[in-house]
Amino acid sequence: KYYSAKEYNDKTFYSSLLSLDVYAAxxxxxxxxxxxxxxxxxxxxxxxxxxxWRSIDGSCNNLNFPWWGATNTPYKRLLKPNYGSKDGAPxxxxxxxxxxxxxxxxxxxxxxxxxxxxxxxNYVTIFGQFIFHDLSHFGSVLGEDGEVLRCKCxxxxxDCINIPIPKxxxxxxxxxxxxxxxxxxxxxxxxxxxxxxxxxxxLNSWMDLSTVYGNTDxxxxxxxxxxGGKLRTxxxxxxxxxFLPTGCPAYTLTKKFCFNAGDNRVNQYPLLTSMHTIWxxxxxxxxxxxxxxxxxxxxxxxxxxxRTIAIxxxxxxxxxxxxxxxxxxxxxxIFGLRSYGDGFxxxxxxxxFPNVANEFSTGASRFGHAxxxxxxxxxxxxxxxxxxxxxxxxxxxxxxLMYPDALEGFLRGCQKDAAxxxxxxxxxxxxxxxxxxxxxxxxxxxxxxxxxxVNRGRxxxxxxxxxxxxxxxxxxxxxxxxxxxxxxxxIERMKQVYASVDDIDLWTGxxxxxxxxxxxxxxxxxxxxxxxxxxxxxxxxWWFENGHDEKIRLSLEQxxxxxxxxxxxxxxxxxxxxxxxxxxxxxxGKSNYEVNCxxxxxxxxxVFKWFGPGQNYDYxxxx
Length: 623
Prior knowledge:
Layout: H1 22-30, E1 73-74, H2 103-110, E2 117-121, H3 123-135, E3 163-164, E4 177-178, E5 200-201, H4 210-213, H5 217-222, E6 234-236, E7 239-243, H6 270-293, H7 299-327, H8 329-334, H9 358-362, H10 368-371, E8 375-379, E9 385-390, H11 391-394, H12 406-416, E10 418-420, H13 428-432, H14 449-459, H15 465-468, H16 488-495, H17 506-512, H18 523-538, H19 556-562, H20 567-573, E11 579-580, E12 595-596
Helix pairs in contact: 2-14, 3-6, 3-7, 6-7, 7-18
Protein backbone atom coordinates (compact mmCIF):
# COMPACT_ATOMS: atom_id res chain seq x y z
CA LYS A 1 0.00 0.00 0.00
CA TYR A 2 1.05 3.59 -0.54
CA TYR A 3 1.28 4.29 3.20
CA SER A 4 3.47 1.80 4.96
CA ALA A 5 2.40 0.91 8.49
CA LYS A 6 6.02 1.39 9.55
CA GLU A 7 5.74 5.09 8.81
CA TYR A 8 3.18 5.74 11.55
CA ASN A 9 5.19 8.06 13.75
CA ASP A 10 2.76 9.72 16.11
CA LYS A 11 2.79 7.89 19.43
CA THR A 12 0.72 10.63 21.06
CA PHE A 13 -2.42 10.30 18.98
CA TYR A 14 -4.13 7.62 21.02
CA SER A 15 -2.72 9.01 24.26
CA SER A 16 -4.84 12.14 23.96
CA LEU A 17 -8.36 12.51 22.60
CA LEU A 18 -9.06 8.93 21.57
CA SER A 19 -7.69 7.26 24.68
CA LEU A 20 -9.84 9.31 27.03
CA ASP A 21 -12.87 7.80 28.64
CA VAL A 22 -15.74 8.29 26.18
CA TYR A 23 -17.68 10.56 28.54
CA ALA A 24 -14.59 12.60 29.41
CA ALA A 25 -13.83 13.04 25.71
CA UNK A 26 -17.38 14.17 25.03
CA UNK A 27 -17.15 16.73 27.84
CA UNK A 28 -13.85 18.05 26.46
CA UNK A 29 -15.51 18.53 23.09
CA UNK A 30 -18.64 20.10 24.59
CA UNK A 31 -16.53 22.68 26.42
CA UNK A 32 -15.71 24.18 23.03
CA UNK A 33 -19.29 24.24 21.77
CA UNK A 34 -19.94 27.93 22.26
CA UNK A 35 -16.73 29.14 20.64
CA UNK A 36 -18.40 29.84 17.30
CA UNK A 37 -21.79 31.00 18.58
CA UNK A 38 -22.95 34.58 18.66
CA UNK A 39 -26.19 36.30 19.56
CA UNK A 40 -28.13 38.39 17.10
CA UNK A 41 -30.93 40.59 18.35
CA UNK A 42 -31.88 41.79 14.85
CA UNK A 43 -33.32 38.50 13.61
CA UNK A 44 -37.07 38.31 14.24
CA UNK A 45 -38.65 34.93 13.46
CA UNK A 46 -41.96 33.87 15.00
CA UNK A 47 -42.38 30.18 15.70
CA UNK A 48 -45.30 27.90 16.55
CA UNK A 49 -44.05 25.50 19.26
CA UNK A 50 -46.89 23.09 18.47
CA UNK A 51 -46.04 22.67 14.78
CA UNK A 52 -45.13 18.97 14.33
CA TRP A 53 -43.28 19.49 11.03
CA ARG A 54 -39.75 20.79 10.55
CA SER A 55 -39.55 23.92 8.40
CA ILE A 56 -38.08 23.85 4.91
CA ASP A 57 -35.56 26.62 5.62
CA GLY A 58 -34.42 25.16 8.95
CA SER A 59 -35.76 28.00 11.08
CA CYS A 60 -37.65 27.41 14.35
CA ASN A 61 -35.75 24.21 15.07
CA ASN A 62 -34.38 25.91 18.17
CA LEU A 63 -37.27 27.76 19.81
CA ASN A 64 -34.93 29.95 21.87
CA PHE A 65 -32.86 31.01 18.82
CA PRO A 66 -35.12 30.43 15.81
CA TRP A 67 -32.51 31.49 13.23
CA TRP A 68 -29.94 28.92 14.37
CA GLY A 69 -29.35 26.48 11.53
CA ALA A 70 -31.59 28.40 9.10
CA THR A 71 -30.94 29.05 5.41
CA ASN A 72 -28.82 32.12 4.59
CA THR A 73 -27.21 32.46 8.00
CA PRO A 74 -23.44 32.67 8.65
CA TYR A 75 -21.09 29.77 9.07
CA LYS A 76 -19.50 29.33 12.48
CA ARG A 77 -15.81 28.79 13.26
CA LEU A 78 -13.95 26.14 15.20
CA LEU A 79 -11.07 28.63 15.54
CA LYS A 80 -11.01 32.37 14.98
CA PRO A 81 -10.09 33.31 11.39
CA ASN A 82 -6.71 34.49 10.19
CA TYR A 83 -7.36 37.01 7.45
CA GLY A 84 -4.74 39.00 5.59
CA SER A 85 -6.04 42.31 6.96
CA LYS A 86 -8.54 43.74 9.43
CA ASP A 87 -11.10 44.22 6.67
CA GLY A 88 -11.07 40.53 5.79
CA ALA A 89 -8.64 40.24 2.89
CA PRO A 90 -7.67 36.63 2.04
CA UNK A 91 -4.81 35.09 4.00
CA UNK A 92 -1.84 35.71 1.72
CA UNK A 93 1.27 35.94 3.93
CA UNK A 94 3.14 33.13 5.59
CA UNK A 95 4.63 33.03 9.06
CA UNK A 96 7.82 34.71 7.85
CA UNK A 97 5.90 37.62 6.32
CA UNK A 98 6.48 36.55 2.70
CA UNK A 99 3.61 35.72 0.29
CA UNK A 100 2.28 32.19 0.40
CA UNK A 101 2.97 29.94 -2.56
CA UNK A 102 0.69 30.05 -5.61
CA UNK A 103 -2.20 27.56 -5.06
CA UNK A 104 -1.70 26.11 -8.54
CA UNK A 105 1.97 25.39 -7.76
CA UNK A 106 0.85 23.60 -4.59
CA UNK A 107 -1.64 21.60 -6.65
CA UNK A 108 1.05 20.53 -9.11
CA UNK A 109 3.71 19.62 -6.55
CA UNK A 110 1.61 18.16 -3.71
CA UNK A 111 -1.72 17.08 -5.20
CA UNK A 112 -0.58 15.62 -8.53
CA UNK A 113 -2.62 12.67 -9.89
CA UNK A 114 -2.19 9.17 -8.52
CA UNK A 115 -4.86 6.46 -8.33
CA UNK A 116 -4.70 3.72 -5.66
CA UNK A 117 -7.93 1.83 -4.99
CA UNK A 118 -9.15 0.40 -1.67
CA UNK A 119 -11.96 -1.82 -0.40
CA UNK A 120 -14.64 0.83 0.06
CA UNK A 121 -17.05 1.40 -2.80
CA ASN A 122 -17.80 4.59 -4.69
CA TYR A 123 -20.97 4.89 -2.58
CA VAL A 124 -18.75 6.31 0.17
CA THR A 125 -17.85 9.13 -2.19
CA ILE A 126 -21.22 9.74 -3.80
CA PHE A 127 -23.35 9.43 -0.65
CA GLY A 128 -20.90 11.72 1.10
CA GLN A 129 -21.32 14.32 -1.63
CA PHE A 130 -25.09 13.94 -1.40
CA ILE A 131 -24.91 14.62 2.36
CA PHE A 132 -22.63 17.61 2.05
CA HIS A 133 -24.82 19.13 -0.65
CA ASP A 134 -27.56 18.89 1.98
CA LEU A 135 -25.54 20.96 4.44
CA SER A 136 -23.41 23.60 2.80
CA HIS A 137 -23.11 25.90 -0.17
CA PHE A 138 -21.47 29.31 -0.41
CA GLY A 139 -22.27 31.57 -3.33
CA SER A 140 -19.96 33.94 -5.16
CA VAL A 141 -19.86 37.72 -4.81
CA LEU A 142 -22.35 39.34 -7.17
CA GLY A 143 -21.77 42.24 -9.53
CA GLU A 144 -23.94 45.33 -9.96
CA ASP A 145 -26.16 43.46 -12.45
CA GLY A 146 -27.06 40.88 -9.80
CA GLU A 147 -25.15 38.10 -11.55
CA VAL A 148 -21.93 36.44 -10.44
CA LEU A 149 -19.08 38.94 -10.60
CA ARG A 150 -17.05 38.99 -13.85
CA CYS A 151 -13.39 38.39 -13.03
CA LYS A 152 -11.01 38.76 -15.95
CA CYS A 153 -7.32 38.00 -15.55
CA UNK A 154 -5.54 41.13 -14.37
CA UNK A 155 -8.64 42.49 -12.66
CA UNK A 156 -7.94 44.86 -9.77
CA UNK A 157 -11.26 44.11 -8.09
CA UNK A 158 -10.41 42.76 -4.60
CA ASP A 159 -13.27 40.25 -4.93
CA CYS A 160 -11.44 38.63 -7.86
CA ILE A 161 -8.92 36.21 -6.38
CA ASN A 162 -7.65 34.79 -9.66
CA ILE A 163 -4.78 32.31 -9.57
CA PRO A 164 -1.86 33.28 -11.87
CA ILE A 165 -0.55 30.47 -14.08
CA PRO A 166 2.93 29.44 -12.88
CA LYS A 167 5.67 28.59 -15.37
CA UNK A 168 5.65 24.92 -14.35
CA UNK A 169 1.98 24.56 -15.32
CA UNK A 170 2.31 23.19 -18.87
CA UNK A 171 -1.44 22.37 -18.88
CA UNK A 172 -2.43 26.03 -18.89
CA UNK A 173 0.26 27.96 -20.74
CA UNK A 174 -2.47 29.28 -23.04
CA UNK A 175 -4.08 31.04 -20.07
CA UNK A 176 -3.02 33.96 -17.90
CA UNK A 177 -4.91 32.80 -14.83
CA UNK A 178 -7.54 30.53 -13.34
CA UNK A 179 -10.51 32.75 -12.52
CA UNK A 180 -11.87 32.57 -8.99
CA UNK A 181 -14.32 34.85 -7.17
CA UNK A 182 -14.56 35.48 -3.45
CA UNK A 183 -17.37 33.84 -1.50
CA UNK A 184 -20.26 36.11 -0.63
CA UNK A 185 -20.01 37.50 2.93
CA UNK A 186 -22.92 37.28 5.36
CA UNK A 187 -23.32 41.04 5.66
CA UNK A 188 -25.64 42.61 4.54
CA UNK A 189 -27.69 39.47 3.70
CA UNK A 190 -27.72 38.43 7.33
CA UNK A 191 -28.72 41.50 9.31
CA UNK A 192 -26.31 41.10 12.20
CA UNK A 193 -22.89 42.47 13.08
CA UNK A 194 -20.03 39.98 13.23
CA UNK A 195 -16.54 40.90 14.48
CA UNK A 196 -14.93 39.58 11.25
CA UNK A 197 -15.87 38.73 7.67
CA UNK A 198 -17.95 35.57 7.70
CA UNK A 199 -19.38 33.76 4.69
CA UNK A 200 -23.07 32.98 4.29
CA UNK A 201 -24.41 29.43 4.03
CA UNK A 202 -27.07 29.39 1.33
CA LEU A 203 -28.47 26.13 2.76
CA ASN A 204 -29.84 25.21 6.16
CA SER A 205 -27.59 23.34 8.57
CA TRP A 206 -29.71 20.25 9.23
CA MET A 207 -29.61 16.66 8.02
CA ASP A 208 -33.06 17.06 6.44
CA LEU A 209 -32.81 15.94 2.79
CA SER A 210 -32.95 19.50 1.51
CA THR A 211 -31.27 18.03 -1.58
CA VAL A 212 -34.73 16.58 -2.30
CA TYR A 213 -37.08 19.17 -0.77
CA GLY A 214 -35.17 22.44 -1.11
CA ASN A 215 -33.99 25.09 1.36
CA THR A 216 -36.59 27.78 0.69
CA ASP A 217 -40.37 27.69 0.66
CA UNK A 218 -40.44 28.80 -2.98
CA UNK A 219 -38.23 25.92 -4.14
CA UNK A 220 -40.23 23.45 -2.04
CA UNK A 221 -43.47 24.66 -3.61
CA UNK A 222 -42.05 24.39 -7.13
CA UNK A 223 -41.08 20.74 -6.52
CA UNK A 224 -44.54 19.59 -5.34
CA UNK A 225 -47.53 18.28 -7.29
CA UNK A 226 -50.00 19.18 -4.50
CA UNK A 227 -51.72 15.86 -5.15
CA GLY A 228 -51.38 12.90 -2.80
CA GLY A 229 -48.41 14.43 -1.00
CA LYS A 230 -46.10 13.70 -3.93
CA LEU A 231 -43.18 15.47 -5.58
CA ARG A 232 -43.07 16.40 -9.25
CA THR A 233 -41.50 13.92 -11.64
CA UNK A 234 -40.88 13.38 -15.33
CA UNK A 235 -41.06 10.24 -17.45
CA UNK A 236 -39.40 9.18 -20.69
CA UNK A 237 -40.60 6.80 -23.37
CA UNK A 238 -38.96 3.40 -23.16
CA UNK A 239 -37.35 4.04 -19.75
CA UNK A 240 -38.83 2.59 -16.56
CA UNK A 241 -39.49 4.67 -13.47
CA UNK A 242 -40.06 8.26 -12.50
CA PHE A 243 -37.26 10.79 -12.88
CA LEU A 244 -36.61 14.22 -11.46
CA PRO A 245 -38.59 17.04 -13.07
CA THR A 246 -36.81 18.63 -16.02
CA GLY A 247 -36.02 22.26 -16.58
CA CYS A 248 -32.86 24.34 -16.43
CA PRO A 249 -32.23 27.42 -14.28
CA ALA A 250 -31.32 30.71 -15.93
CA TYR A 251 -27.64 29.76 -16.07
CA THR A 252 -26.18 26.30 -15.95
CA LEU A 253 -23.46 24.31 -17.67
CA THR A 254 -26.17 21.91 -18.89
CA LYS A 255 -28.21 24.32 -20.98
CA LYS A 256 -29.81 21.81 -23.36
CA PHE A 257 -31.10 19.28 -20.83
CA CYS A 258 -31.08 19.17 -17.07
CA PHE A 259 -33.04 18.09 -14.02
CA ASN A 260 -34.44 20.08 -11.12
CA ALA A 261 -34.06 19.12 -7.48
CA GLY A 262 -33.77 20.66 -4.04
CA ASP A 263 -30.09 21.43 -4.71
CA ASN A 264 -28.94 23.06 -7.95
CA ARG A 265 -25.78 20.93 -8.17
CA VAL A 266 -27.91 17.90 -9.09
CA ASN A 267 -26.62 17.78 -12.69
CA GLN A 268 -22.91 17.63 -11.90
CA TYR A 269 -22.62 14.00 -12.95
CA PRO A 270 -24.91 10.95 -13.37
CA LEU A 271 -24.20 9.18 -10.08
CA LEU A 272 -25.14 12.26 -8.08
CA THR A 273 -28.25 12.68 -10.24
CA SER A 274 -29.05 9.00 -9.62
CA MET A 275 -28.87 9.47 -5.85
CA HIS A 276 -31.26 12.42 -6.10
CA THR A 277 -33.59 10.29 -8.22
CA ILE A 278 -33.62 7.37 -5.77
CA TRP A 279 -34.60 9.61 -2.85
CA UNK A 280 -37.25 11.43 -4.90
CA UNK A 281 -38.79 8.06 -5.72
CA UNK A 282 -38.56 7.03 -2.06
CA UNK A 283 -40.63 10.03 -1.01
CA UNK A 284 -43.31 9.28 -3.61
CA UNK A 285 -43.28 5.57 -2.75
CA UNK A 286 -43.91 6.42 0.91
CA UNK A 287 -46.63 8.94 0.02
CA UNK A 288 -48.43 6.34 -2.10
CA UNK A 289 -48.23 3.75 0.67
CA UNK A 290 -49.54 6.20 3.28
CA UNK A 291 -52.50 7.15 1.07
CA UNK A 292 -53.42 3.47 0.77
CA UNK A 293 -53.21 3.14 4.56
CA UNK A 294 -55.54 6.12 5.04
CA UNK A 295 -57.18 7.64 1.91
CA UNK A 296 -58.73 10.38 4.06
CA UNK A 297 -55.40 12.08 4.70
CA UNK A 298 -55.04 15.21 2.59
CA UNK A 299 -52.14 16.26 0.39
CA UNK A 300 -50.39 18.41 3.00
CA UNK A 301 -50.46 15.74 5.67
CA UNK A 302 -49.26 13.04 3.25
CA UNK A 303 -46.41 15.27 2.04
CA UNK A 304 -45.25 16.21 5.52
CA UNK A 305 -45.47 12.67 6.92
CA UNK A 306 -43.74 11.13 3.88
CA ARG A 307 -41.01 13.79 4.22
CA THR A 308 -40.66 13.03 7.95
CA ILE A 309 -40.24 9.29 7.28
CA ALA A 310 -37.78 9.78 4.40
CA ILE A 311 -35.65 12.14 6.53
CA UNK A 312 -35.70 9.60 9.38
CA UNK A 313 -34.46 6.87 7.01
CA UNK A 314 -31.76 9.18 5.67
CA UNK A 315 -30.57 10.12 9.18
CA UNK A 316 -30.47 6.47 10.27
CA UNK A 317 -28.48 5.37 7.21
CA UNK A 318 -26.06 8.30 7.52
CA UNK A 319 -25.26 7.83 11.22
CA UNK A 320 -25.48 4.08 11.69
CA UNK A 321 -24.19 2.73 8.38
CA UNK A 322 -22.17 5.44 6.64
CA UNK A 323 -20.31 7.32 9.38
CA UNK A 324 -18.85 4.22 11.14
CA UNK A 325 -17.12 3.31 7.87
CA UNK A 326 -15.99 6.85 7.10
CA UNK A 327 -14.86 7.89 10.59
CA UNK A 328 -14.19 4.53 12.23
CA UNK A 329 -15.93 2.98 15.20
CA UNK A 330 -13.86 4.75 17.84
CA UNK A 331 -14.51 8.31 16.62
CA UNK A 332 -18.16 7.44 15.96
CA UNK A 333 -18.60 6.25 19.55
CA ILE A 334 -16.69 9.10 21.18
CA PHE A 335 -18.97 11.63 19.53
CA GLY A 336 -22.08 9.57 20.29
CA LEU A 337 -23.17 9.40 16.68
CA ARG A 338 -24.53 5.87 16.54
CA SER A 339 -27.92 4.70 17.81
CA TYR A 340 -27.98 2.48 20.88
CA GLY A 341 -30.90 0.43 22.19
CA ASP A 342 -34.59 0.71 21.39
CA GLY A 343 -35.45 3.71 23.56
CA PHE A 344 -35.75 7.37 22.74
CA UNK A 345 -32.69 9.54 22.22
CA UNK A 346 -32.67 12.00 25.12
CA UNK A 347 -29.49 13.93 24.32
CA UNK A 348 -31.07 16.94 22.66
CA UNK A 349 -29.27 20.12 23.77
CA UNK A 350 -30.81 23.46 22.74
CA UNK A 351 -27.57 25.25 23.62
CA UNK A 352 -25.63 23.61 20.77
CA PHE A 353 -25.03 26.13 17.99
CA PRO A 354 -25.69 23.95 14.92
CA ASN A 355 -24.50 26.16 12.07
CA VAL A 356 -22.07 24.42 9.74
CA ALA A 357 -18.43 25.24 10.51
CA ASN A 358 -16.39 27.10 7.91
CA GLU A 359 -13.59 24.58 8.40
CA PHE A 360 -16.04 21.80 7.58
CA SER A 361 -17.10 23.43 4.31
CA THR A 362 -13.71 24.60 3.05
CA GLY A 363 -11.68 21.66 4.38
CA ALA A 364 -12.93 18.44 5.89
CA SER A 365 -16.06 17.93 3.77
CA ARG A 366 -13.91 18.00 0.63
CA PHE A 367 -12.36 14.59 1.38
CA GLY A 368 -14.42 13.16 -1.51
CA HIS A 369 -12.20 14.95 -4.01
CA ALA A 370 -9.35 12.67 -2.92
CA UNK A 371 -11.53 9.52 -3.08
CA UNK A 372 -12.94 10.21 -6.55
CA UNK A 373 -11.90 7.74 -9.26
CA UNK A 374 -11.16 8.68 -12.91
CA UNK A 375 -14.17 6.73 -14.18
CA UNK A 376 -17.65 5.44 -13.30
CA UNK A 377 -18.67 1.99 -14.47
CA UNK A 378 -22.02 0.67 -15.62
CA UNK A 379 -22.99 -3.01 -15.16
CA UNK A 380 -25.95 -4.98 -16.45
CA UNK A 381 -28.23 -7.23 -14.36
CA UNK A 382 -25.87 -10.19 -14.98
CA UNK A 383 -22.94 -8.26 -13.50
CA UNK A 384 -21.28 -7.79 -16.88
CA UNK A 385 -19.38 -4.57 -17.42
CA UNK A 386 -21.25 -2.47 -19.96
CA UNK A 387 -19.12 0.66 -20.01
CA UNK A 388 -16.39 2.58 -18.20
CA UNK A 389 -17.26 6.28 -18.37
CA UNK A 390 -14.48 8.82 -17.91
CA UNK A 391 -15.07 11.85 -15.74
CA UNK A 392 -14.48 14.03 -18.80
CA UNK A 393 -17.63 12.63 -20.42
CA UNK A 394 -19.66 12.42 -17.21
CA UNK A 395 -19.46 15.95 -15.86
CA UNK A 396 -22.63 17.99 -16.42
CA UNK A 397 -24.04 15.30 -18.72
CA UNK A 398 -27.34 14.09 -17.19
CA UNK A 399 -28.47 12.79 -20.59
CA UNK A 400 -26.43 9.66 -19.89
CA LEU A 401 -29.33 8.52 -17.69
CA MET A 402 -31.78 8.71 -20.58
CA TYR A 403 -31.35 5.11 -21.74
CA PRO A 404 -33.02 1.88 -20.59
CA ASP A 405 -31.27 0.45 -17.50
CA ALA A 406 -28.80 3.37 -17.45
CA LEU A 407 -29.65 4.48 -13.91
CA GLU A 408 -29.47 0.90 -12.62
CA GLY A 409 -26.20 0.42 -14.52
CA PHE A 410 -24.60 3.37 -12.75
CA LEU A 411 -25.91 2.22 -9.35
CA ARG A 412 -24.49 -1.30 -9.86
CA GLY A 413 -21.18 0.15 -10.99
CA CYS A 414 -21.02 2.49 -8.01
CA GLN A 415 -21.09 -0.53 -5.69
CA LYS A 416 -18.52 -2.52 -7.68
CA ASP A 417 -16.04 0.30 -8.28
CA ALA A 418 -13.55 0.81 -5.46
CA ALA A 419 -12.89 4.35 -4.28
CA UNK A 420 -9.44 5.91 -4.24
CA UNK A 421 -7.19 5.68 -1.20
CA UNK A 422 -7.41 8.80 0.98
CA UNK A 423 -4.30 10.77 0.06
CA UNK A 424 -3.28 14.23 -1.22
CA UNK A 425 -3.55 13.06 -4.83
CA UNK A 426 -6.54 13.94 -6.98
CA UNK A 427 -7.30 12.15 -10.19
CA UNK A 428 -6.03 13.79 -13.38
CA UNK A 429 -9.35 15.31 -14.46
CA UNK A 430 -10.02 16.99 -11.10
CA UNK A 431 -6.42 18.15 -10.87
CA UNK A 432 -6.21 19.81 -14.27
CA UNK A 433 -9.35 19.84 -16.40
CA UNK A 434 -12.49 20.05 -14.27
CA UNK A 435 -15.46 22.14 -15.40
CA UNK A 436 -16.71 24.71 -12.94
CA UNK A 437 -19.92 26.72 -12.80
CA UNK A 438 -18.92 30.29 -11.83
CA UNK A 439 -21.50 32.38 -13.61
CA UNK A 440 -22.38 33.03 -17.24
CA UNK A 441 -19.52 35.42 -17.99
CA UNK A 442 -16.57 33.50 -16.55
CA UNK A 443 -14.64 30.56 -18.08
CA UNK A 444 -16.00 27.06 -17.51
CA UNK A 445 -13.22 24.64 -18.42
CA UNK A 446 -9.69 23.80 -17.36
CA UNK A 447 -9.86 24.38 -13.63
CA UNK A 448 -7.81 22.72 -10.91
CA UNK A 449 -10.01 21.58 -8.04
CA UNK A 450 -7.04 21.24 -5.68
CA UNK A 451 -5.86 24.80 -6.43
CA UNK A 452 -9.45 25.97 -6.03
CA UNK A 453 -9.69 24.33 -2.58
CA VAL A 454 -6.46 25.90 -1.37
CA ASN A 455 -7.44 29.34 -2.63
CA ARG A 456 -10.95 29.08 -1.15
CA GLY A 457 -9.56 28.36 2.32
CA ARG A 458 -7.41 31.49 2.10
CA UNK A 459 -10.39 33.51 0.87
CA UNK A 460 -12.31 32.45 4.01
CA UNK A 461 -9.42 33.27 6.33
CA UNK A 462 -9.18 29.67 7.50
CA UNK A 463 -6.18 29.15 9.73
CA UNK A 464 -3.21 26.92 8.99
CA UNK A 465 -3.65 23.15 9.23
CA UNK A 466 -1.16 23.10 12.10
CA UNK A 467 -3.56 25.12 14.29
CA UNK A 468 -6.27 22.43 14.01
CA UNK A 469 -4.14 19.42 14.89
CA UNK A 470 -4.53 19.83 18.69
CA UNK A 471 -8.32 19.66 18.33
CA UNK A 472 -7.92 16.09 17.11
CA UNK A 473 -5.37 15.10 19.72
CA UNK A 474 -2.27 15.60 17.58
CA UNK A 475 0.66 17.76 18.67
CA UNK A 476 1.02 21.17 17.09
CA UNK A 477 4.28 20.89 15.19
CA UNK A 478 7.04 23.41 15.99
CA UNK A 479 9.06 22.32 12.96
CA UNK A 480 8.93 19.82 10.10
CA UNK A 481 10.38 17.02 12.25
CA UNK A 482 7.41 17.27 14.60
CA UNK A 483 4.81 17.08 11.81
CA UNK A 484 3.59 13.64 12.77
CA UNK A 485 0.88 11.40 11.34
CA UNK A 486 1.78 12.49 7.80
CA UNK A 487 3.95 10.34 5.45
CA UNK A 488 7.54 11.46 5.03
CA UNK A 489 7.14 11.67 1.26
CA UNK A 490 4.20 14.02 1.65
CA ILE A 491 6.21 16.17 4.06
CA GLU A 492 9.06 16.42 1.56
CA ARG A 493 6.64 17.64 -1.11
CA MET A 494 5.13 20.20 1.25
CA LYS A 495 8.58 21.53 2.11
CA GLN A 496 8.94 22.52 -1.55
CA VAL A 497 5.96 24.90 -1.38
CA TYR A 498 5.68 25.96 2.27
CA ALA A 499 8.38 27.83 4.16
CA SER A 500 6.98 26.75 7.55
CA VAL A 501 4.71 24.10 9.02
CA ASP A 502 2.53 27.03 10.12
CA ASP A 503 1.84 27.92 6.48
CA ILE A 504 0.24 24.63 5.40
CA ASP A 505 -3.26 25.22 4.06
CA LEU A 506 -5.98 23.35 5.95
CA TRP A 507 -7.27 21.23 3.06
CA THR A 508 -3.74 20.26 1.98
CA GLY A 509 -2.86 19.13 5.49
CA UNK A 510 -6.12 17.23 5.99
CA UNK A 511 -5.82 15.08 2.87
CA UNK A 512 -2.13 14.41 3.59
CA UNK A 513 -2.74 12.62 6.90
CA UNK A 514 -2.63 8.86 7.33
CA UNK A 515 -6.10 7.33 7.38
CA UNK A 516 -7.21 6.17 10.82
CA UNK A 517 -6.71 2.43 11.39
CA UNK A 518 -10.47 1.78 11.48
CA UNK A 519 -11.69 4.54 9.17
CA UNK A 520 -11.19 6.18 5.80
CA UNK A 521 -10.00 9.65 6.83
CA UNK A 522 -7.15 11.09 8.86
CA UNK A 523 -7.66 12.15 12.49
CA UNK A 524 -8.11 15.89 11.94
CA UNK A 525 -10.63 15.43 9.12
CA UNK A 526 -12.46 12.85 11.22
CA UNK A 527 -12.59 15.23 14.18
CA UNK A 528 -13.99 18.17 12.19
CA UNK A 529 -16.58 15.97 10.49
CA UNK A 530 -17.59 14.13 13.67
CA UNK A 531 -18.02 17.36 15.58
CA UNK A 532 -20.33 18.66 12.88
CA UNK A 533 -22.42 15.49 12.78
CA UNK A 534 -22.62 15.59 16.57
CA UNK A 535 -24.10 19.11 16.32
CA UNK A 536 -26.69 18.07 13.73
CA UNK A 537 -27.88 15.22 15.93
CA UNK A 538 -27.68 16.62 19.46
CA UNK A 539 -28.81 20.09 18.39
CA UNK A 540 -31.73 18.93 16.21
CA UNK A 541 -35.13 19.16 17.90
CA TRP A 542 -36.58 17.02 15.09
CA TRP A 543 -33.93 14.28 15.20
CA PHE A 544 -35.86 11.11 14.30
CA GLU A 545 -35.13 9.32 17.61
CA ASN A 546 -35.61 12.39 19.79
CA GLY A 547 -38.01 11.67 22.65
CA HIS A 548 -37.90 14.92 24.61
CA ASP A 549 -41.05 16.47 23.06
CA GLU A 550 -44.17 14.34 22.75
CA LYS A 551 -45.78 16.97 20.48
CA ILE A 552 -43.45 16.13 17.59
CA ARG A 553 -41.78 12.79 18.30
CA LEU A 554 -42.26 9.49 16.51
CA SER A 555 -43.37 6.52 18.57
CA LEU A 556 -40.88 3.87 19.66
CA GLU A 557 -42.55 1.40 17.31
CA GLN A 558 -42.13 3.80 14.40
CA UNK A 559 -38.48 4.46 15.27
CA UNK A 560 -37.79 0.71 15.41
CA UNK A 561 -39.27 0.28 11.94
CA UNK A 562 -37.18 3.14 10.50
CA UNK A 563 -34.03 1.48 11.84
CA UNK A 564 -34.69 -1.56 9.64
CA UNK A 565 -33.85 0.37 6.50
CA UNK A 566 -30.53 0.55 4.64
CA UNK A 567 -29.26 2.31 1.56
CA UNK A 568 -29.34 -1.08 -0.17
CA UNK A 569 -33.07 -1.35 0.60
CA UNK A 570 -33.74 2.23 -0.60
CA UNK A 571 -32.03 1.38 -3.91
CA UNK A 572 -33.97 -1.88 -4.26
CA UNK A 573 -37.33 -0.23 -3.57
CA UNK A 574 -36.75 2.53 -6.10
CA UNK A 575 -35.04 0.91 -9.06
CA UNK A 576 -35.15 -2.26 -11.16
CA UNK A 577 -32.24 -3.76 -9.26
CA UNK A 578 -33.24 -7.11 -7.72
CA UNK A 579 -29.90 -8.24 -6.28
CA UNK A 580 -27.54 -6.18 -4.17
CA UNK A 581 -24.94 -6.46 -1.42
CA UNK A 582 -26.33 -5.65 2.06
CA UNK A 583 -23.67 -2.98 2.71
CA UNK A 584 -23.25 -0.96 -0.47
CA UNK A 585 -20.46 1.12 1.10
CA UNK A 586 -18.11 -1.87 0.84
CA UNK A 587 -17.08 -3.65 -2.35
CA UNK A 588 -18.14 -7.26 -2.98
CA GLY A 589 -16.39 -10.00 -1.08
CA LYS A 590 -15.75 -11.50 2.32
CA SER A 591 -19.10 -11.35 4.14
CA ASN A 592 -20.63 -8.80 1.77
CA TYR A 593 -22.13 -10.94 -0.99
CA GLU A 594 -25.14 -10.20 -3.18
CA VAL A 595 -28.56 -11.17 -1.86
CA ASN A 596 -32.05 -10.90 -3.28
CA CYS A 597 -33.66 -7.57 -2.50
CA UNK A 598 -36.63 -9.36 -0.96
CA UNK A 599 -34.31 -10.79 1.72
CA UNK A 600 -33.42 -7.33 3.06
CA UNK A 601 -35.29 -5.84 6.00
CA UNK A 602 -37.89 -3.25 5.06
CA UNK A 603 -39.89 -0.55 6.87
CA UNK A 604 -43.50 -1.54 7.56
CA UNK A 605 -45.30 1.76 7.02
CA UNK A 606 -48.46 0.45 8.69
CA VAL A 607 -46.99 1.61 12.01
CA PHE A 608 -47.64 5.17 10.81
CA LYS A 609 -51.38 4.60 10.47
CA TRP A 610 -51.82 6.41 13.77
CA PHE A 611 -49.05 8.97 13.47
CA GLY A 612 -49.92 10.96 16.58
CA PRO A 613 -49.99 14.70 17.31
CA GLY A 614 -49.52 15.78 13.70
CA GLN A 615 -52.96 14.52 12.73
CA ASN A 616 -54.63 17.09 14.96
CA TYR A 617 -52.47 20.05 13.99
CA ASP A 618 -54.03 22.85 11.96
CA TYR A 619 -51.13 23.46 9.58
CA UNK A 620 -53.20 26.01 7.60
CA UNK A 621 -53.36 28.52 10.42
CA UNK A 622 -51.05 31.52 10.29
CA UNK A 623 -48.73 32.48 13.10
